[in-house]
Amino acid sequence: MRKLGVESGDTLFVHSSFKRLGPVEGGAAAVVEALECCIGAEGMILMPSFNLVEGGHAARAANWCVETTRSTVGWITEYFRTMVGTHRSDHYSHSVAARGKGAEEYVSRHKEKRGMVSPWDFEPWGRTWGCGSPMVRAYADPQGKVLMLGVDYRTATYCHMVEVMHWNAVLQDDPEARMRGYDRERLGAYWDALGRVRRGLVGNAPSRLFQIKDFVDTLLALVEKNPTAWSR
Fold first, then answer.
1. What's the whole-model pTM score?
2. Which DSSP helix (H) or strand (E) runs through 190?
3. Which of 17, 18, 71 is nearest to 49 (CA)?
4. Number of Cβ within a 10 Å radius of residue 221
């Protein structure tokens, strides 16, 4: 992970496939321990702990308990959320779990109703990609990075941020506009080709590391020039 570019003090948003890592002595606990070793006492680990059960808003809301609802986005994320000392944001669908310096406060504001609107907003919860969202806070964090362990851009949550930011800009002129979805794999291939991604193996898993803000801002500028060309 250090060779890939993970540094002390990083705010690391981690997407992962435990299976792709290959045999890991110590299991998911060893993966988290390695991450914590790399970021040190001043860093923070963020993982999606999303509740993406079928049935839309109502089913997810009915299923939601911040303390007990399982993460549906991978074994490492589920192990991570249950660890003593992990804190989780209160969002029925797109909650984020965090460990590290200031983690409890970092995820405490997800119920705020300020900032960007998105299709996943649902009362009484706050705005999914609003000012208090841990995902938005990590975007604004100078140390914010995405670490992708054995997964591809189909899992890239920050592609959603590109969609949401573009949609909120369009809404200023057309309040009836619908959010446009973009092809994550094509966007990912474009981003890879720019050469601003650190790539390598972590265990057996092909992995990537990059700055969150650079990724989002670069792809936002791309789709703003020609939204239809990148639509899925």
1. 0.96
2. helix 184-193
3. 71
4. 10
